[in-house]
Design brief:
By secondary structure, this protein is of the alpha+beta class. The chain contains four helices and four strands, in the order αββββααα. A four-stranded antiparallel β-sheet has the order 1-2-3-4, covered by helices on one side. The protein is elongated and about 80 Å long.
Length: 148
C-alpha cells in the first residue's frame, strides 16, 4: 500500500491538475456528478454507476469520482467539468484483499468476516512478535546465566 502513490500511476492514478483552486469558479457538485456518470456510461457500458465517494482536491482544482464495483475513477476539472483522466484504481482492489473485504463482499456478511480476519491477524502478529523476541532473547539469557 505504501507504493501506491509512487507507482507512476499504475497502482493509483496520479491526481491531475484542474484550471483553478477557487471554489467560487467551480461547477456545482451535481453537475460534475452528471458529467462523471455520463463519462463512465460512455466509456464502460457494463459498469455500475453507483458512486462510492467523491474526492475533492481543492488545491489541485480537480474532483475524483470513485465508483463502487468497478475500481475506476473519473477525474474532472472542477471549474469546467472537462475530463482530466479515467483511471483504474488497482490500489482499491489490493486494499480489499489486504483487509479481507473481498471475502466479505463475496459472502455478503456485512463486515463480519473482515472484523474476524483483522482481529485474528492482529493477535497473530502480536503473538509472533512476543514469541520471536523470546526465541531470540531466551538463549542469550540462558548462556549468561550458565557463565555465572
Amino acid at each position: 500500500m505504501g507504493w501506491k502513490k509512487n507507482s507512476n500511476g499504475y497502482i493509483l492514478p496520479k491526481t491531475q491538475k484542474g484550471t483553478t483552486a477557487d471554489l467560487k469558479k467551480w461547477l456545482p457538485v451535481d453537475s460534475l456528478h452528471t458529467i462523471a456518470i455520463t463519462t463512465i456510461q460512455n466509456e464502460f457500458r457494463d459498469r455500475t454507476l453507483e458512486v462510492d465517494r467523491i474526492d475533492i482536491r481543492k488545491e489541485k482544482g480537480s474532483v475524483k469520482f470513485i465508483f463502487v464495483d468497478s475500481f475506476y475513477e473519473i477525474q474532472l476539472d472542477g471549474a469546467n467539468g472537462n475530463v482530466l483522466s479515467i483511471g483504474k484504481r488497482r490500489s482499491d482492489f489490493l486494499e480489499n484483499v489486504h483487509d479481507g473485504s473481498i471475502v466479505d463482499d463475496y459472502l455478503g456478511t456485512d463486515g463480519y468476516v473482515k472484523l474476524v480476519y483483522t482481529t485474528v491477524m492482529g493477535v497473530s502478529l502480536f503473538i509472533f512478535t512476543v514469541t520471536g523476541f523470546w526465541l531470540w532473547y531466551g538463549p542469550k539469557r540462558m548462556r549468561k546465566a550458565n557463565k555465572a
